[in-house]
Automatic annotation (TrEMBL), chain A:
UniProt membrane topology term: Multi-pass membrane protein
Species this protein is from: Jiangella anatolica
Keyword Transport set for record: yes
Family named by the database record: Belongs to the binding-protein-dependent transport system permease family.
The ABC transmembrane type-1 domain, residue ranges: 121-334
GO cellular component term of the entry, any: plasma membrane
Transmembrane residue ranges: 34-55, 121-142, 163-188, 208-229, 265-291, 311-334
The name this protein goes by in its record: ABC transporter permease
PROSITE patterns referenced in this protein's UniProt entry, alphabetically: ABC_TM1
Keywords: Cell membrane, Membrane, Transmembrane, Transmembrane helix, Transport
One GO biological process term: transmembrane transport
TrEMBL record, chain B:
Occurrences of domain ABC transmembrane type-1 (ranges): 88-279
Family under the similarity heading: Belongs to the binding-protein-dependent transport system permease family.
Entry keyword annotation includes Ubl conjugation: no
Top-level taxon of origin: Bacteria
Record-linked InterPro entries: BP-dependent_transpt_permease (IPR050366), MetI-like (IPR000515), MetI-like_sf (IPR035906), OppC_N (IPR025966)
Taxonomic placement: Bacteria, Bacillati, Actinomycetota, Actinomycetes, Jiangellales
Main location: membrane
Descriptive protein name: ABC transporter permease
């Protein structure tokens, strides 16, 4: 009896210590990811200071180049930007400003950059968000189909179309769509986000109507990549032993695909979707410019030609921070999606 | 000894080509590429002296396709065909130089990081990660805006923002190569760092770099057209992207002047697609696992 009592005692302890250790590991995983993102964010802030303060030499001259600005006005601008102080002081002012979400004042709009961003952020979130969801759904679905029937006519056509669309400049595609469907057939508006005089609930179908062409343009250039990655990562999985086993068990094709192959192939693709957000954001700059969509991309474009350095700098920091943040979210979500990554 | 080496290299090249030939899309890409390179080289022969002149243009502005100008004329009265021909020079030049910068940096940093290891390597990879996580095209555009408009600016902006992908790839390949026993043999026989990196690692990394290069030229050309369209290029060069921007400026979209918008875009798509197909075909030859796809 005493013998049987002996081995039972350490077992709960062992379980406890394993649980402790896995808790520590999990905390360390999240801590590492969070720390990495913070370092990246700091690198962005540093890069941005270097890019917009150091490289131009004299930012005021860069901005006022070819404009009727008197010497006194230039001096005033230099004082406004704090260019008369030492570089270290400038960096400190800039850093504390960014951390307090103070991104300076736009040169061409004479308004704080943060206010401008606040006015313009939602149209971009709507357009980029919708296009990421649509292109991810489309790309994953076509990618799974292509890999499962690889080598078939449908697969070859799909891959060909995707590769071609991948080579298409998005701004050109947008212009062609406007020529055909907006100014040609008159099915969709040529620009803007809303018609004037539309109020209340009527606004939803109106905005949707305006969004069709920008959305199609953005999705067309983005989905191809998701398709190719999903297709190749599923093809990798299809050669695995566990798929053969699942088939040998006599499982139906749909079940093998949905329960066994796709979940394992999903992770690389999901990673790519988040890593590629920067690419989508840049696509939004072009598409918003073409379609006069009143978002951040159009704002960025309007800042480029001046160049309105505080505005371009603020948007650069915002875009980078958004991409970093979304990647952090993805990193924190992976353990939920895929047990193999679970710390 | 030297003869033997060359014979072996010839055999490898012949084997490479016979495998490459089986990829029909790759051969198609190669033919398209050859045509564009030829066009770019022969541009002065194919067009008249005043083809690009704004002051003495060959035709009247904004004319639709006719017997004289098969694809019509632009806003200054220049033939669209001539503009496309000269544009191929700009695109290929930018594509090659930007890729050269990017591949040179990427390969150098990748090999160094893979070969030496230690904290220097982690620092290098950390820097690479910073670049990877930043939206590189936004960074490139901002850089081009700060540096001022010119073709060189675009080349530098694309090159500087696109090297990290290559660096990652090359580092992985370097680590794989350095794990092989013959590297240990070379070290044991007294080969220094430089010898190992240049004589053993580099030749083994080159094939994967070649595939990456081809793919990158395509995407650099696409990026160039985008930057030119955003007005960051040299206003006096007739690049394809700049031509599309000019078309938009004169209202070609609302007045449906398709001959002004369509041809430069199609040229971009063809060149980029050709580079992509060739790059994928090379990848397929190097990595037989990919070939069945």
């Amino acid at each position: 009896m005493a013998d049987s009592a002996l081995p039972t005692a350490p077992v709960p302890q062992l379980a406890q210590s394993v649980r402790d250790r896995s808790g520590v590991r999990r905390l360390r995983y999240y801590g590492e990811k969070l720390g990495g993102s913070l370092v990246s964010l700091f690198a962005v802030i540093l890069t941005s200071f270097f890019l917009f303060r150091i490289i131009p030499g004299d930012p005021v001259r860069t901005m006022t180049h070819g404009r009727p600005v008197s010497i006194e006005q230039q001096e005033q601008l230099r004082r406004d930007f704090g260019l008369d102080k030492s570089l270290a002081e400038q960096f400190w002012t800039y850093l504390t400003g960014v951390l307090r979400f103070d991104l300076g004042e736009s040169f061409q709009y004479n308004r704080p950059v943060t206010d401008l961003i606040g006015d313009r952020i939602w149209p971009t979130v709507l357009l980029v968000g919708t296009s990421v969801i649509v292109s991810a759904a489309l790309g994953l679905w076509l990618g799974v189909r292509g890999a499962w029937n690889h080598g078939s006519l449908g697969d070859r056509v799909n891959t060909g179309v995707a590769l071609t669309l991948w080579s298409v400049p998005s701004f050109w595609l947008g212009l062609i769509l406007i020529v055909i469907f907006a100014s040609g057939l008159g099915w969709f508006p040529t620009s803007g986000m809303e018609s004037t005089g539309v109020e209340g609930w009527e606004r939803i179908p109106d905005v949707a109507h305006h969004m069709v062409l920008p959305l199609v343009t953005l999705v067309a250039v983005v989905y191809a990549q998701y398709l190719m990655i999903m297709r190749s990562s599923l093809l990798d999985e299809m050669g695995s032993d566990y798929i053969v086993t699942a088939r040998a068990k006599g499982l139906r094709d749909v079940i093998v695909r949905r329960r066994h192959a796709v979940p394992n192939a999903l992770l690389p693709t999901v990673t790519l979707i988040f890593v590629n957000l920067g690419f989508v954001v840049f696509g939004a700059v072009l598409v918003e410019t073409i379609f006069s969509w009143p978002g951040l991309g159009q704002l960025f474009y309007s800042g480029l030609s001046v160049p309105d350095l505080p505005l371009v700098q603020g948007l650069f920091i915002l875009f980078s921070a958004a991409v970093i943040l979304m990647n952090l979210v993805a990193d924190l979500l992976y353990p939920v999606l895929d047990p193999r990554v679970r710390p | 000894m030297n003869g033997l080496v060359w014979a072996r290299r010839r055999r490898t090249a012949a084997r490479f080509w016979s495998q490459y030939r089986q990829n029909r899309a790759g051969v198609f890409g190669l033919v398209v590429l050859a045509l564009f390179v030829l066009t770019a080289l022969l541009a002065p022969v194919l067009t008249a002296d005043n083809a690009l002149s704004v002051t003495r243009p060959p035709g009247s502005p904004l004319q639709g396709p006719s017997a004289d100008f098969l694809l019509g004329t632009d806003r200054s009265g220049r033939s669209m065909i001539d503009l496309i021909i000269w544009g191929s020079r700009v695109s290929l030049t930018v594509g090659f130089w930007a890729t050269f910068i990017s591949i040179a940096f990427g390969t150098l940093f990748g090999i160094l990081a893979g070969h030496f290891g230690g904290w220097g390597s982690s620092l290098l990879m950390r820097v690479t990660d910073w670049f990877l996580v930043m939206p590189s095209l936004v960074l490139g555009v901002a850089l081009a805006a700060v540096l001022g408009r010119s073709l060189t600016t675009i080349i530098v902006a694309i090159g500087v923002t696109s090297w990290p992908t290559t660096a990652r790839l090359v580092r992985a390949q370097t680590l794989a190569v350095e794990a092989r026993p013959y590297i240990e043999r070379a070290r044991a026989l007294g080969g220094g760092h430089l010898h190992v990196m240049s004589n053993h690692v580099l030749p083994n990394v080159m094939p994967i770099v070649l595939a990456q290069t081809t793919l990158m030229v395509g995407s650099a050309i696409l990026t160039e057209s985008t930057f030119a369209f955003l007005g960051l290029g040299d206003p006096t060069t007739a690049s394809w992207g700049a031509t599309i921007q000019a078309a938009r400026d004169v209202g070609a979209v609302s007045s449906r002047m398709w001959w002004y918008i369509l041809p430069p875009g199609i040229a971009i798509v063809l060149v980029v697609l050709a580079f992509t197909l060739v790059g994928r075909a090379i990848e397929g030859v190097l990595n037989p696992k990919l070939r069945e796809r």
